[in-house]
Design brief:
Blueprint lengths: L1 E5 L7 E5 L5 E8 L2 E10 L2 E12 L2 E5 L5 H15 L3 E5 L5 H4 L2 H6 L3 E5 H9 L7 E3 L3 E5 L2 E6 L11 E4 L4 E5 L18 H14 L5 E4 L9 H12 L1
Parallel strand pairs: 1-10, 6-7, 7-8, 8-9, 13-14
Antiparallel strand pairs: 2-3, 3-4, 4-5, 5-6, 10-11, 11-12, 12-13
Length: about 240
């Protein structure tokens, strides 16, 4: 497993922000210095939510996935700066779809270090999505300030390249779109999914991280930590 160490020079409840075009951003405290932020996109007249996360470290703030478009990024960065008195220094995208990557170029232009897996990087180029400036090839441990976390690629699922991020000390599993919310009634967008392999991939995640306290799915409610098992249930129903 690779290791990357970066040394680079508050709110309880929830925060609602509004960027240009009245696109809502919701920020909610998770635990310690972890926050889930939710952005929205108009899909056929419905504002569809997308969950991402950020972590406040002594060296700066780390984003896990980006908002869906650049109009939502600056209000997010401004709020983080005001509320935590820190800048975003790093962003990591968990797969190539635009609900994870749309803000990468904006962030890079504003001095933020951006990362994805090499698999995601290549798919971003192939599908004309914004790509990170840097990439890692294997599962990687990041050390940022006083925090450590690891990326894990268990296999194909929602997309070919979807990874999860694990914070061992806090037992947080950031699942992105590989993991479905317990309020999801179906698998959602499966245009680029590998339905055949998805179940095996989820089982590998469960085996590697059997007792998460928090499980953050890519969309909809994250208050339950049963998202992995619920995803298995939906996959079996889909058969």
């Amino acid at each position: 497993m690779q290791k990357i160490t970066l040394t680079i020079l508050l709110l309880f409840g929830h925060i609602l922000l509004f960027g240009q075009d009245n696109k809502e951003i919701r920020i909610q405290h998770l635990t310690d210095n972890f926050y889930v932020y939710t952005t929205y996109k108009d899909l056929n007249g419905l504002m569809f939510p997308s969950n991402s996360m950020y972590l406040v470290t002594e060296n700066g703030v780390v984003l896990f996935d980006t908002p869906w478009d650049t109009t939502q990024i600056q209000p997010l960065l401004d709020s983080i700066s005001v509320r935590h008195n820190k800048k975003v220094i790093l962003a990591i995208s968990t797969h190539y779809h635009d609900d994870r990557t749309a803000g990468l170029e904006f962030l890079r232009q504003n001095g933020v270090i951006t990362y994805s897996s090499k698999f995601t990087y290549d798919l971003c180029i192939e599908h004309n999505e914004k790509q990170a400036e840097f990439y890692f090839v294997n599962d990687t441990i990041f050390n940022i300030g006083n925090y450590k976390f690891e990326t894990y690629y268990a296999g194909e699922g929602h997309t070919k390249d979807n990874i999860i991020i694990w914070f061992d000390k806090y037992k947080i599993l950031y699942g992105g779109c590989l993991v479905k919310s317990t309020e999801s009634k179906n698998l959602g967008n499966i245009a680029d999914a590998n339905i055949k392999e998805w179940e095996t991939t989820i089982k590998k995640v469960i085996k590697k991280y059997p007792k998460p306290i928090f499980v953050i799915p890519g969309h909809f409610s994250w208050t339950s930590n049963k998202g992995l098992k619920h995803t298995l249930k939906l996959l079996r129903q889909n058969k």
